[in-house]
Specification:
TIM Barrel; 10 strands; 43% helix; 15 helices; eight-stranded parallel barrel; alpha/beta; single chain
Length: 331
């Protein structure tokens, strides 16, 4: 068993996290991740109302007796969701771990802390990680350029970002973006992280609440099957490469504004991808890690495989590379 500062902080067996994913972070997936000994997060804003979130948390509790959390993503919007009401639903439901992401969450951090909730804040740069640490969050999820969704605007891949953050961040930190297997977990631990966050990998599991054809598309795709949209608007998002994302990138190169592509990138269309199995229906998030995903296991099979193989890499492959010099042997 691999025990780290993060597993001790949040009370789970394994240093593996399934972070918040719009339309995907539902009770059936989160409960399966939790039952496997990892930490799963229900995505708050996938639920239409705070009342629906309360029901989804209760549904997850019916499916598992292991700890799980809720993701609350704070993003700029013309008509913002009632964040305070979602926050209250999380607290009143007795959730003890929250993943925050997006704009400065100080108000939410303060309120969650009052109720003894542990906060994992997701960020894409060392400066934002340090800012969140000053705000009082309990752990950081540091997101490299390889990730699905929003990688920030610095384009710093995990191989640099994780150790750069580990040099400065004092609280526990999980590595996010590009993780799918035991090799990634061992690498993240070696780079200074206390665990890994996986999104795309957990999408391609049996309990993931998305269409089987999309799971099969993730398995079929390689590491080149993503596009970076909204680059010209400095709101970059990594999504699966399909007819729509390719069109959006082409339109941006021709100077298109958000209003010009609004209908193409509408969230309702992306939601339909997961419902219908038509991968060209809308924009949907996926990381470069698709190139490392070759099957659709249960969450229990996936987590146990990663932990088992990680222990084998550490004990056998890495330990076997340490050879005593003649001087050491003489001592």
């Amino acid at each position: 068993m691999l025990q780290t500062r993060f597993t001790k902080l949040v009370g789970v067996e394994h240093p593996i996290v399934q972070g918040g994913m719009q339309w995907v972070g539902r009770a059936e997936l989160v409960a399966a991740v939790a039952s496997a000994g990892a930490l799963g997060f229900i995505t708050a804003l996938t639920q239409p109302t705070p009342e629906d979130l309360t029901k989804e948390i209760a549904r997850c509790r019916d499916l598992t007796d292991k700890p799980f959390g809720v993701n609350l993503t704070i993003l700029p919007a013309i008509k913002p969701p009632p964040y305070a009401e979602y926050r209250a639903a999380i607290i009143e439901s007795g959730i003890k771990v929250v993943e925050t992401a997006g704009n400065k969450p100080q108000e939410h951090v303060d309120e969650f802390k009052k109720h003894g909730v542990k906060i994992v804040h997701k960020c894409t740069s060392v400066r934002h990680a340090l800012s969140a640490e000053r705000m009082g969050v309990d752990a950081i999820s540091i997101d490299g350029f390889e990730c699905a969704g929003h990688p920030g605007e610095d384009d710093t891949p995990g191989l640099i970002l994780i150790p750069a953050a580990a040099n400065k961040v004092k609280i526990p930190m999980i590595a996010s973006g590009g993780f799918a297997d035991a090799r990634g977990l061992v690498a993240a631990l070696a780079l200074g992280a206390d665990g890994i966050n996986m999104g795309t990998r957990f999408m391609a599991t049996q309990e993931s609440p998305i269409h089987q054809l999309i799971k099969e598309r993730i398995v079929a795709n390689d590491e080149r099957e993503t596009e970076l949209i909204f680059r010209t608007m400095r709101n970059t998002s990594r999504v699966a490469k399909n007819a729509i994302s390719t069109k959006v990138v082409a339109m941006e190169k021709e100077g298109a504004k958000f209003e010009d592509i609004r209908e193409l990138v509408a969230g309702a269309r992306g939601k339909m991808v997961y419902a219908t199995g038509n991968s060209d229906e809308g924009i949907w998030s996926a990381g470069q890690v698709q190139g490392l995903i070759q099957d659709i296991p249960t969450c229990a099979e996936l987590v146990s495989r990663i932990v088992r193989e990680a222990e084998a890499i550490i004990r056998n492959r890495l330990d076997g590379m340490i050879v005593q010099s003649k001087a050491q042997a003489a001592e």
